[in-house]
Amino acid sequence: MQLDEFDRKIIAALREDARMPVAQVAERAALSATPVSRRIKRLEDEGVIRGYAPVLDPRKLGLELEAYVLINLNAHIDENIARFEQAIAENPHVIACHAVTGDMDYLVRVMARNVEHLSQITLRTLLRIPGVRDVKSIIVLETVKETQPVPLD
Description:
CATH topology of the largest domain: Alpha-Beta Plaits
Number of strands: 4
GO molecular function: sequence-specific DNA binding
Helix content: 25-40%
Domain HTH asnC-type: 3-64
Protein name: AsnC family transcriptional regulator
CATH superfamily of the largest domain: Lrp/AsnC effector binding domain/regulation of amino acid metabolism (RAM) domain
Shape: elongated
Order of helices and strands: HHHEHEEHE
Keywords: DNA-binding, Transcription, Transcription regulation
Organism: Novosphingobium barchaimii LL02
CATH class of the largest domain: Alpha Beta
């Protein structure tokens, strides 16, 4: 879908505050409220805007540690992949999982209370998923940049 300048301004305003009143979004987009409402509805209907969610501060919830875990499966058979992906989907501390190219099969983003908790998640959960061969963890020391991942260029 092609986004025009008005769509980009609307999305930028909603990224800043998804609860922003339509009149305020309209002001930022230099349109009146009615066309902005129609554009937002179209962006939602076409799946460009997939939803709205609060942005949580993990530290305020006791999750002080973020890590990326690289995982290899011992065999790339459908049963192993299905079991692994089901276990990942059910793990509340896994906030993202990507099948990747290179030496590892999956890149998993994990939020934990501390190093001991990460160890429990890694050794007692991820490594014990049937079909998992190898697990390597990378602990985040500092986040330099983090934005909503879809650029509007």
